[in-house]
Design brief:
CATH architecture of the largest domain: 3-Layer(aba) Sandwich
Number of strands: 15
Order of helices and strands: EHEHEHEHEHEHEHEHEHEEEEHHHEEHH
Shape: globular
Structural class: alpha/beta
Length: about 375
């Protein structure tokens, strides 16, 4: 199969779909790889490095979209990219379709077969291709909150960990999954007071054991959320409903309960955000203020550390990508995890959470693969 790796064109996104090491693995399986010139520059991978790994270099993305049988990316295709996709082609990347009806319609019209990293599952029902970026984003969320809290950035002037004789900041983490756990670890590592709120009692037990009582845990109710955010200096939004839009846990009315210059970091912004007042921002202009509350809502947080992110992502995606490359649609059909990842196939929407979020017609993935 001819695998294409275009340069990412989303604003301030510099990760790359395949690292040179991953290219070498595809080549060892007998596949051809076409990489856009300069695609790996931000991770320190030159065109020559890719050539040595077994790839050929394309001068522009148009050549890749025209020739490749499978496109491997990081972020969702932009309008100029989905217009170049076609029936019979496979797209393997993050999609986050639930809050993005325009992209969803574009992929449906293209006829492409699109497998979304964020809905691929493993044998235990986990999300192995979302996890590495969730780990990165969770850790970055605390770095982002620490910077936004500085007085010279318009923040409340608190050092998250405090110093002897001065209380540390209070950090509330909404969601105890991968993002929330790593955010809590970073916050505790800096010395902040941390509360993790989740709606799963078994998960709260795990977190209590993991942190050895150094982080508080709480069962998610409206009353508890209001109580905790009213005392917080930082709130991390780390909730996830796989494939669907994130629930709005903090409404605009709740902002009035919070201290001025409290920092909200919405890591769920790719799925529409878990704060009612969230809107996507960029690394160039990451924050804005609503009712005196600072919002950080960068939609591609791991893009700030492309070397770490690209290699972590490729470690996870490589086995799944090779299955698709080696076996084509049969590889998707026969792999339950990849079947869960199938979001669009030849004009049919095959993700039920996306269909429900956007009120569109849904086709069961296996049925769609057999019927087309």
């Amino acid at each position: 199969m001819l695998i294409g790796v275009p340069k990412e064109i989303k604003k301030q996104e510099s990760r790359v779909g395949l690292t040179p090491g991953a290219v070498r693995e595809y080549a060892a399986h007998g596949h051809q790889i076409l990489v856009e010139s300069g695609a790996g520059a931000s991770i320190g991978a030159t065109d020559e490095t890719y050539i040595a790994a077994g790839a050929k270099i394309a001068s522009d993305a148009a050549d890749i979209f025209a020739r490749a049988e499978m496109i491997v990316k990081v972020k969702e295709p932009q309008p100029g990219e989905w217009a170049q996709l076609r029936e019979g082609q496979i797209l393997f990347t993050y999609l986050h379709l639930a809050p993005d009806p325009e992209q969803t319609e574009g992929l449906i019209r293209s006829g492409v077969t699109a497998v979304a990293y964020e809905t691929v599952t493993d044998r235990s029902g986990g999300l192995p291709l979302l996890a590495p970026m969730s780990e990165v984003a969770g850790r970055l969320s605390i770095e982002a909150a620490a910077i936004a809290s500085r007085a010279n950035h318009g923040g409340n002037g608190l050092l998250l960990g405090g110093v002897p004789g001065v209380k540390p900041a209070r950090v509330v983490v909404l969601g105890g999954g991968v993002v929330g756990t790593h955010a809590a670890r970073m916050a505790r590592g800096l010395g902040a007071e941390v509360t993790i709120i989740d709606r799963s009692i078994p998960r709260l037990r795990q977190l209590d054991e993991l942190f050895g009582g150094t982080a508080r845990t709480g069962f998610s109710t409206l009353a508890l959320i209001e109580e905790e955010i009213s005392a917080a200096d930082v709130v991390i939004g780390a909730v996830l409903v796989p494939g669907a839009s994130a629930p709005k846990l903090v409404t605009r009315d709740m902002l009035s309960l919070m201290k001025q210059n409290t920092v909200l970091v919405d890591v769920a912004i790719d799925q529409g955000g878990c704060f009612e007042t969230s809107r996507a921002t960029t690394h160039a202009d990451p924050t804005y203020v609503v009712d005196g509350i600072i919002h950080y809502c960068v939609a591609n947080m791991p893009g700030a550390v492309p070397r770490t992110s690209s290699y972590a992502l490729n470690n996870a995606t490589l086995p799944f990508g090779l299955t698709i490359a080696d076996e084509g649609l049969k590889g998707i059909l026969n792999n339950p995890g990849l079947l869960e990842g199938l979001n669009v196939h030849r004009g049919m929407l095959t993700s039920q959470p996306v269909a429900e979020s956007l009120n569109l017609e849904y086709r069961e993935p296996r049925e769609a693969l057999y019927s087309a």
